[in-house]
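A student in our group prepared the protein record below, which I am reviewing. Here is the record exactly as it was handed to me.
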Amino acid sequence: MRLAQQQVDDESAKILEGMADRLDGKPPRGDDKFEDSVEQLQQTVRSCCSEGPQESLTAQLQTFLTLSRNSESLTMSLRKEI
């Protein structure tokens, strides 16, 4: 799961850097894989949740997944505005 989260973080950083570049008048980058990395993270979390009856871990992973979705939504909204 850490690897999947790191990929999301890396792609999010690329998006933010791209937004900063556009504000500086530079052309947009074309190699965006943010949404794919978020989907991979969500699949990883779902897979972890389905592996046994660890209710407290499942609740924590669901909370993590919700936060991840909120972060994705905020990043994409900001991206559309810039």
Summary: The two ends are 31 Å apart (CA to CA).
